[in-house]
Amino acid sequence: MSRKGKGKGRRNTAGHRNAAGNGRGPxxxxxxxxxxxIPTLGRPCLADCLAALDACRGPRPREVVVVADVPPAGxxxxxxxxxxxxxxxxxxxxxxxxxxRGPAAxxxxxxRDARTPWIAFxxxxxxxxxxxxxxxxxxxxxxxxxxxxxxGRLHVPLPADRxxxxxxxxxxxxxHAAWATADMAYRTAALRxxxxxxxxxxxxxxxxxxxxxxxxxxxxRLERGTRRTVHPVRPTGRWTSLRVQRGNADDALMTxxxxxxxxxxxxxxxxxxxxxxxVGLAAACALLLAAAxxxxxxxxxxxxxxxxxxxxxxxxxxPGPRTKDEVATMLLTSAAIPPAALAHWAAGYVRHRRAGAWxxxxxxxxxxxxxxxxxxxxxxxxxxPEGAS
Length: 389
Known about the structure:
The chain is an alpha/beta fold. The protein has helices at residues 45-55, 75-83, 103-111, 132-142, 166-172, 188-194, 207-217, 240-243, 247-258, 262-265, 273-291, 295-317, 324-351, and strands at residues 34-40, 63-68, 93-97, 118-122, 127-128, 147-155, 183-187, 221-230. It has 13 helices and 8 strands. Strand 1 (34-40), helix 1 and strand 2 (63-68) form a beta-alpha-beta unit. Helix 9 (247-258) crosses helix 13 (324-351) and helix 11 (273-291) crosses helix 13 (324-351).
């Protein structure tokens, strides 16, 4: 392991298999030489991620760049985790400091010095499967010259002895997400052309969809490959579904950059923001009418708020384990999520009101050269639970 050194590439140990049918024989160097970039907050799961990457069969990456998205004082802790888990990849791993600016900035930092034609991005909480590198080689060999990225297939293990919780179901939605950077390989040329990740996205939310739309708008194709990666559900607390409402601010930025139809083009679920707005409006009007001494219309609107909140809570409770703790959490957070979602969306709308629309004629985010940078400290990365936004 080093902070500067780079390992040497390898020939394709998968032999002469070429899904693209290009007729490349055995012993010919593999043209899909790749770098792996892993942003991390220094969580314990990083060790499992690196150990799985070391254990999988297939062509080794030329380099594994671990971007410690922490202040400089936290770098030694990440380096210690790398030393204890990189195994045979130790001479190919390089740890760099991301400075705590968020996953988009961390991925840009890791990709900046890549000298390989492909960059495979992995999250630090995934575990690649035994044939991952071999299947990645096949995915990249099958990619035509117009292919800008190839997505891996995520698998989220769920409990076998009970129904999954709201948080577990939300994480399982990653199995169907388009272009999730938990396992996404981009052609380096496509990243350079579009300016990389937009660093105004401070969370692990929407920054992958934004980049994918810019790559598509620039004329590249995005495809789904065959390689598989396991994405475990990480432990979380009762109020996580409230914290992830911060992502509504990122949705506001997406609308500014890509227009109101970005949901369809990004293959993203629309969410419940319009319904949250209706429930929130009913609650606000009920309070105003009550303060104005008009109890009957206030009671009617309060009833609408209660009905909307109950419907939202039941949609989250019904498919779950229905334990006392889960039901209590769903009831409490279902009442609090609509105003939180609206507040974060409004804050994002105001913050990004001057953001220019992305133009494919430009060379970076919003048509400018290079990635845009965030103007403040990043929030902690979260995954959105089902029905929460």
